[in-house]
Protein: Phosphoglucosamine mutase
Amino acid sequence: MKKKLFGTSGIRGHFPEDVNGILAINIGKAIGTYLGGKGDVVVGYDPRTSNKVLDNGISSGLIETGCNVIKLGMVPTGLTGFATEMLNCSCGIMITASHNPSTDNGVKIWNKNGMAFTSSQEDEIEEIYNSNSFITPSWNNVGKIYHNNEIIKDYIDKLLSLVKIKKGLKVLIDSASGAGSELSPIIFRMAGCEVITLNSQVDGFFPGRKAEPNKNNLGDLMQLVPILNADLGIAHDGDADRMITVDENGEISDFDKLLGLISKEMVIKTGDTIVTTVDAGLAIDEAVGSRGKIFRSEVGDVHVAELMEKENASFGGEPSGTWIHPEFSMCPDGILSGLKIAEIVSKKGKLSQLLNEIPSYPNERVKLPCSKEEKVLIMDEVKKSIKNEFNDIIEVSTIDGLRLTFKDGSWVLIRPSGTEDYFRITLEGKTQERADFIQKTSENFINNLIH
Structure:
């Protein structure tokens, strides 16, 4: 069955065309039916303007099947995953479209251990949803709705127990007016940091900047960090499951080098096995070196988490800044990720210098607009023919999309986005000239296929 609802990170789409109250009710019924109409389900949401529509819809669907709902309100995704496990719930639901525009919303589902639902579990939910085969209990067996605010204290205490930051580190936090706007600054202050906030008023329109923490959207943060003499800048996305840093000079950190830095530290501290994704560059290999083993999964935190469990990994993460810390939860948490980097900086020196110690090579991440309908056809053609455009391929991987590795160690990954209407090209060249050639060749090939 081809998926119509779930992408690489739950359900996402435009509101109300793709994601709306009717979908929410039926998704709630489908999840409740999957759970057998029993148990408690925690529900949280980010600040998007459509959050209450989906929250109430999903909650209605769940209690109609007999499940109880524990409402968390507006919280970061990491807190929802944490609460699912801590409150011994049957599953957790986060209403969010993460880094997508404010016009979008979505649903992500968490297992009782805090790990996102696997693809096979999503398939089961989708089959129930499409068949309308919902459990319908009698009038006296519908579920109940509760509210829980106390879990926030447990969440804060747990995060603070996992780091020791030297007091006085000056941190500028840009929360994008998202779900981390209130908690992230508070937690960093409690950890001993001097905190200045930016875009930390909760607002589902994301008025200060777009929700995705990338160079194009972080101009204010990059400018203000050196002006305010901060040691570190931290940027979250809409639901605060991600974190990207800006160094003391106002430079946004290279995603792959930042992942390499935290991976090296985690190997030294907690274990020798790291999981990342097929779109991660060579920096993680260079940083970890012979200290540990690196495994690569499909793109998406659920795939990282699944492989982490299989390999008993001490850490897992994507270059996007979505990192999983198993000593906390199998749910990614951008606030904890930021605390971990702050801890490293407070103990080992300036972030720019720490990142400069990690070798890297010219890399590019390109997004080409492409409709949902065209993605499958184009990917089929890419797998069939793009290899003819290069003459020095030594390895072909189809774990996720198509990744080609070349004789000199350069590589390119071509895959359709699982969350947006784009084709993604990620590449790394051993020289800038080589990177430019790979990018131009790949872009031209795909653009010729997009109508």
